[in-house]
């Protein structure tokens, strides 16, 4: 029942029963006041608010989702869980949590952002405290960078003022105009307050394909040497990843003060997916659709994808990006 309908029902019920007319002016004012208070209470109950009813971190839920829904990303899973756990359990963080997720398309970057949002907000990605920016959509014109900077600053300032537990996701950082992202540098720094607002409890997540080539080369090197992908550690990738992103003049992080001032807490590499991981993605999609799991169909869908190197067919070119549409063809 909508709030307006409930309040209308409350008013009509009182009037129809003659109760309002039976009261003296003071009592009538009291009853009407109670009705208004009830209306506000009902509205607050149904309307998402910046409080523990709507923002309640579920650490076991995030771990379970990372373990059962994210495939082939042992490094990313470990970093994300520790980073988010540590941040959300700290009642007085010194700065916002800033994560930069890197890797080729279809490896799970957007999916992980969704899992983080679902673990923090009851409404998940539909929460009004989760904000997504896509470079090609929201910041398309290079000649308007100054305007974009001003708008972005105002948007972040306004939303954090409304709720300090806000989450901001920046997609396609590799397509963002260099210099634009530096406009939000003050909000990611170690300031207690800026213009009366504290940004320390907010989360910023950047998604980018930049650095993906270096991640793939490392994964290929391990494969050629006969090593398991699980042997790859963050130290094998993080420094080279941050440097390649910082020096890439086609990246939104090109010579960025966010990197230069060490404001990005973690550069999280997403490894290219192997055939077995694609099969797991197909089975997970079947489960999500509540259809019987069919391993033969999962194999056929996985076989239909393109892999590289061309002769060995080790890694999926598009990861699990096209699984949903491919599955439609086979069921």
TrEMBL record:
Per the UniProt record, one Pfam family is TOR1A_C
Name of this protein: Torsin
Q: Looking at the UniProt record for this protein, which Gene Ontology cellular component terms does it annotate, in alphabetical order? A: cytosol; endoplasmic reticulum lumen; nuclear envelope
Residue sites binding ATP per the record: 103-110
GO biological process, any: protein localization to nucleus
UniProt signal peptide: 1-22
GO MF term (any one): kinesin binding
What SUPFAM superfamilies does this protein's entry cite? Answer: P-loop containing nucleoside triphosphate hydrolases
């Amino acid at each position: 029942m909508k709030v307006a309908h409930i309040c209308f029902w409350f008013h009509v019920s009182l009037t129809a029963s003659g109760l309002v007319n039976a009261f003296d002016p003071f009592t009538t004012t009291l009853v009407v006041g109670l009705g208004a208070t009830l209306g506000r209470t009902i509205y607050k109950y149904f309307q998402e608010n910046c409080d523990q009813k709507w923002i309640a971190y579920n650490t076991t839920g995030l771990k379970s989702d990372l373990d059962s829904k994210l495939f082939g990303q042992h490094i990313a899973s470990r970093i994300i869980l520790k980073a988010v756990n540590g941040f959300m359990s700290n009642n007085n963080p010194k700065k916002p949590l800033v994560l930069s997720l890197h890797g080729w398309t279809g490896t799970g970057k957007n999916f992980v952002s969704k899992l983080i949002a679902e673990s923090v907000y009851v409404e998940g990605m539909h929460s009004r405290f989760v904000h997504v920016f896509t470079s090609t959509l929201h910041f398309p014109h290079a000649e308007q960078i100054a305007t974009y900077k001003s708008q972005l600053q105002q948007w972040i300032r306004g939303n954090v003022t409304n709720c300090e537990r806000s989450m901001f996701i920046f997609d396609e950082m590799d397509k963002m105009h260099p210099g634009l992202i530096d406009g939000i540098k003050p909000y990611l720094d170690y300031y207690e307050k800026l213009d009366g607002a504290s940004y320390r409890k907010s989360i910023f997540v950047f998604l980018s394909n930049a650095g993906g080539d270096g991640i793939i080369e490392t994964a290929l090197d391990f494969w050629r040497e006969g090593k398991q992908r699980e042997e790859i550690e963050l130290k094998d990738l993080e420094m080279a990843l941050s440097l390649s992103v910082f020096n890439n003049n086609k990246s939104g992080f090109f010579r960025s003060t966010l990197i230069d001032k060490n404001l990005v807490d973690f550069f999280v590499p997403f490894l290219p997916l192997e055939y077995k991981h694609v099969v797991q993605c197909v089975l997970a999609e079947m489960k999500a659709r509540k259809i019987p799991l069919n391993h033969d169909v999962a194999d056929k869908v996985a076989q239909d994808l393109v892999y590289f190197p061309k002769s060995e067919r080790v890694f999926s070119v598009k990861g699990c990006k096209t699984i949903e549409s491919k599955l439609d063809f086979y069921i």
